[in-house]
Design goal:
Largest sheet of chain A: 5 strands, parallel
CATH topology of one domain in chain B: Heat Shock Protein 90
Largest sheet of chain B: 5 strands, antiparallel
Number of helices of chain B: 12
Structural class of chain A: alpha/beta
Oligomer: heterodimer
Helix content of chain A: 40-55%
Low-confidence stretches of chain B: 6-25, 29-34, 490-502
Mean pLDDT of chain B: 80
Order of helices and strands of chain A: EHEHEHEHEHEEEEHEHHEE
Strand order of the largest sheet of chain A: 2-1-3-4-5
CATH architecture of the largest domain in chain A: 3-Layer(aba) Sandwich
CATH class of the largest domain in chain A: Alpha Beta
Radius of gyration of chain B: 48 Å
Distance between the termini of chain B: 70 Å
Order of helices and strands of chain B: HHHHHEEEEEHHHEHEEHEEHHEE
Number of strands of chain A: 12
CATH superfamily of one domain in chain B: Histidine kinase-like ATPase, C-terminal domain
Radius of gyration of chain A: 19 Å
Number of helices of chain A: 8
Low-confidence stretches of chain A: none
Distance between the termini of chain A: 21 Å
Shape of chain A: elongated
Structural class of chain B: alpha+beta
Strand content of chain A: 15-25%
CATH architecture of one domain in chain B: 2-Layer Sandwich
CATH topology of the largest domain in chain A: Rossmann fold
Number of strands of chain B: 12
Helix content of chain B: 55-70%
Strand order of the largest sheet of chain B: 2-1-5-4-3
Chain lengths: 227, 502
């Protein structure tokens, strides 16, 4: 996927660009808002990683607002040291699709950028999710694996739905907390691990091959076939 | 729109501010007033108020004097003129009806009937010789073509002033009707003198008043100013004096003092936080540093090196988490988010949390007993309350032994507000430590061996304070019973006098 990185800190930018390239993406980088806006408006990207405080007169929010003003809906992830709730709200209001605060773990950034880029592809509203032999009917709220019905609690259903919507992608614990529980803080306890483990008991344990995989230092991934 | 134009639009938006940020209107006003009055004097608000006072006082006094004059001396003059006019009218009618003889007779009658002895009549023939009336002769200085005049007269040896009207009768006869106004003249003079005197007194009183107003302002504001100056200089203990009259100045002083108290508390908080950061963040940072240095010098192979780096990253993540918690607490304590308060039902929020933590409790062989009222209407910030309850549950799960029961209950009473209780069966907090348990980085003896930053209860305390409630830590026999109260309908009260009781 083509990803634009607008970040003025050399070390951070170098680290992000290297990491994204290693993950198989094509990356463009610029260190100021002026060039960032030019590139974002003139070329097609699958996602943009945008710092907020940029040199050159155009900061991240202005860049984003101008871009959205032109009906450019490229998914944007803001990466900023401004971490307060109000700043996050400002970023989201300006039109960003996600907001990650510095310092960050690269795995978190990669997972979120890939999720955004995928979402940007815009598959219409679906009624059925499929991953390997696992099927989820969103209308009847029924789940089947290899033709066998699986009973899930409402929250387990939403957790599995989130994993299936991001099939083949890494989802971090924070993403699950935000996406499934709508929580915007990190609990001290390993709550997510417990819930994923419960889900595994129902979805993976009775079957020969596991679908939900733990990705070390990152999170989880629902994947149909073994790598 | 092409990208260059787009850039220009963005740049134009960015540069909307004038290059020189000084407001224009203010400079102009300063120049203007400098031309009228000495700048230094006008800059003083007390002088301005004094001048305003004197001005208002003077204008109202002048208005009073004008009205007094108009309603006394002026009224008398107008009455005299009206009487003369009526006389002239009556006499001329008599003349038209009955001729010269009837006129003379009427004049005699009127003179006889004049009780105040102030009426003046003179009827003269075309040669200005007296025919009737109480004046000896036609006034020498009286021209024939004037209708109204005031003249000095002498009657029975007394000199006086008279206001007269001359009227030409058919046949060349002249009629002079007047009133002796000497008494009134004297009264008017007296009145004028009195008004002039009072104008002088007014000027003095106005000036004295203005000076007094200015002095009063100076006196009252001097204390505020001195206090502010002392605080700027670093003496945070100074407060504005409250006179005890309960007036506006007292109100101002109290408001300022409240503000200073709050600033003081915030300053204490900042000092406490910086001290805590100095002490409590040093430990994990030191650990990370030691790991990295140790790995750099002693690692035998790449695997060791990687493992050491990963552990150091984990340590640094811990430091970042502590920083984020500190910032979040500071953000909540600053109270800026209170504007985002909204009414919402807390019951589903708590049930969600119970669902999230219930699974964890089960995993650990504990039981989460939930007792939540069907509807718990609350007003506040949903995310904050969620996080506060999550912190309490985190603690409860962490400290309760296997097989223990954790209780989460919530009730809402319209008059009492919302009560949320999280009770565990862990070691609890000794009574002596309870008041300090919500301080930043405070960790009780029993908590030293468990992971945690010592910020969980601080955040809970900050959240309930922002919501006008309180947090009470009690003994659960055994364990800790944490009771959170949030004010209903956004009513804010102070915390109860005893924060921690057993």
């Amino acid at each position: 996927m083509r990803i634009l990185v607008v970040e003025d800190d050399k070390d951070v930018a170098g680290f992000i660009v290297k990491g994204l390239k290693e993950a198989g993406h094509v990356v463009e980088h610029t260190d100021n808002g002026r060039d960032g806006l030019f590139l974002a408006a003139s070329e097609n990207f699958d996602a943009i990683v945008l710092d907020r405080m940029l040199p050159g007169g155009i900061d991240g929010l202005r860049l984003l607002e101008t871009l959205r003003g032109q009906n450019n809906n490229t998914p944007v992830l803001i990466l900023s040291a401004l971490a307060q709730v109000e700043e996050r709200v400002r970023g989201l209001k300006a039109g960003s699709d996600d907001y990650l605060t510095k310092p960050f773990a690269f795995a978190e950034l990669l997972a979120r950028v890939e999720a955004l880029a995928r979402r940007g592809k815009g598959e219409g509203p679906t009624t059925k999710l499929v991953a390997g032999d696992l099927e989820m009917d969103l209308l009847s709220r029924g789940v089947k694996r290899a033709g066998q019905k699986i009973d899930l609690q409402p929250r387990e259903f939403r957790l599995l739905e989130y994993l299936m919507r991001h099939v083949g992608q890494v989802v971090t614990r924070t993403m699950l907390l935000e996406g499934v529980w709508d929580y915007h803080f990190d609990p001290q306890t390993n709550v997510i691990d417990v819930h994923v483990s419960r889900l595994r008991q129902k979805v993976d344990k009775p079957f020969p091959t596991p679908l939900i995989h733990t990705i070390r230092n990152a999170g989880y991934m629902l994947r149909a076939e073994q790598p | 729109m092409s990208p260059p134009r787009l850039l220009a639009a963005a740049a134009a938006g960015a540069g909307a501010r004038p290059p020189n940020g000084r407001p224009v209107g203010r400079t102009w006003r300063r120049r203007f007033s400098a031309a009228v009055l000495p700048r230094r004097l006008l800059r003083s608000a007390s002088v301005r108020f004094g001048i305003l006072y004197a001005g208002i006082f003077g204008i109202s006094a002048l208005a009073l004097a004008v009205f007094l004059w108009w309603s006394t001396a002026g009224l008398l003059d107008r009455q005299t003129d009206a009487a003369i006019n009526a006389d002239v009218q009556g006499l001329s009618e008599r003349y038209t009806e009955g001729g010269l003889l009837a006129l003379e007779e009427t004049i005699e009658q009127r003179l006889a009937g004049n009780v105040d002895d102030d009426a003046l009549y003179l009827l003269a023939d075309p040669g200005l010789r007296r025919m009737a009336g109480n004046l000896e002769h036609w006034p020498a200085r009286m021209p024939l073509d004037f209708a109204w005049d005031e003249l000095a007269i002498e009657r029975a040896g007394i000199r006086g002033m008279a206001r007269v009207r001359q009227f030409q009768l058919a046949g060349g006869f002249h009629l002079l009707v007047g009133r002796d106004v000497e008494v009134r003249r004297q009264m008017a003079r007296l009145l004028t003198d009195a008004l002039l005197w009072s104008a002088g007194v007014m000027l003095v009183l106005g000036t004295v008043g203005a000076v007094a107003v200015r002095g009063l302002f100076r006196l009252t504001l001097a204390d505020v100013s001195a206090t502010a100056a002392a605080i700027s200089a670093g003496d945070l203990t100074r407060r504005v004096r409250v006179s005890g009259h309960g007036d506006e100045f007292d109100l101002l002083a109290e408001t300022i003092n409240d503000m200073l108290d709050r600033i003081g508390r915030l300053m204490d908080g900042v000092r406490q936080v910086s001290n805590s950061i100095a002490h409590d963040l040093r430990t994990p940072i030191t650990r990370a540093r030691v790991r990295l240095e140790d790995a750099a010098t002693h690692a035998q192979n790449e695997t060791d090196l990687r493992a050491a780096i990963e552990r150091a990253v984990t340590d640094l993540d811990g430091v970042v988490a502590v920083f984020q918690a500190l910032l979040r607490i500071a953000e909540i304590e600053a109270g800026a988010r209170r504007s985002a308060f909204a009414p919402f039902d807390l019951a589903p929020v708590l049930l969600d949390l119970a669902d999230l933590y219930g699974a964890v409790a089960e995993e650990r062989g504990q039981r989460l007993a939930v007792d939540i009222a069907p509807a718990v209407p609350a007003i506040g910030d949903r995310d904050m309350i969620q996080q506060a309850v999550a912190n309490l549950l985190d603690n409860a799960l962490k400290f309760t032994p296997e097989g223990g029961v954790i209780q989460l209950s919530a009730t809402a009473e319209p008059s009492q507000g919302v009560h949320i209780v999280v009770a565990d069966q862990g070691p609890g907090i000794p009574e002596a430590d309870r008041t300090r348990a919500t301080e930043r980085f405070f960790r009780g003896e029993s908590a030293r061996s468990t992971p945690g930053s010592g910020l969980g209860l601080t955040l809970v305390q900050a959240v309930v304070t922002l919501h006008g409630g309180w947090l009470r830590l009690e003994d659960n026999h055994p364990g800790l019973r944490a009771e959170m109260r949030i004010a209903a309908r956004g009513r804010f009260e102070g915390p109860p006098s005893v924060k921690a009781s057993s």
